[in-house]
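not sure who needs this but someone in the group chat was asking about Lipoprotein with Yx(FWY)xxD motif from Microvirga arabica so here u go. i didnt clean anything up, its just raw.
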Amino acid sequence: MRQILRPAILAAALVAASVAVAQTAAPAKVADTSKGKALVDAKGMTLYTFDRDTAGKSACNGQCAQNWPPLMAAANASASGDWSVVTRDDGFKQWAYKGKPLYLWVKDTKPGEVTGDGVNNVWRVAMP
């Protein structure tokens, strides 16, 4: 009986470990763009920062957030290292890197595009 339980216990431990790793994985990755290395979402879409945001607070709401969708975080997301989670004015959670909330740009249509860089001189490609 003991021999049969060992593989089952090992399998359960591996599943638990993989879930823990998945929960602590960074919400974005680094990719090469025409602007150099940039943070991108899981689909490879470039992420941006907004100069009008203050430390840990998004200033992009309403119409702004329709054009610049926030990189949303799950309500129970846990952050570590350079990653943090900020609460938006609407109560939803958003990922931030080094305290700067992150956004996508609706006019970027393909992974690696950086058409949002410099828009209104307040939007910047998020650099690692």
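also Strands lie at 29-33, 36-40, 48-50, 72-73, 83-87, 93-97, 100-101, 123-125. if thats useful
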